[in-house]
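Entry 14. Ran structure prediction on the chain below.
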Amino acid sequence: MAKASTHRLDPEIQAALENLSRVLRQPKNRLINEAVKLYVELKGWKIEHELESTLNKLRAHRRNDPNFERNIEAFVEAEAKLSASDPAEGRTEIAEGPVQTKIQRLLHA
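Output, structure tokens:
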């Protein structure tokens, strides 16, 4: 059983749909359902193709470096090389807002 739903169409699309409905002598509802079905199928196929492509690339990468050793090595080298210029290296800071400032004042009063 079809479920009723409300959607807004741009005026240009609405006018084109009305013209198409009149010319084809088909209800707008049927045309809308047909159009949405085709759109969903097309988008689904496109997304499926993109995901399969991405998965194939990941599998190929894993075959070339199964334990990610090269990636881990590159990360370690970059960390070692750039750590001297990283201002946050080895530090943690918590931004103090008005509440934290007031509590600090009360604790140290």
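The chain has four helices and no strands. Will compare against last week's run tomorrow.
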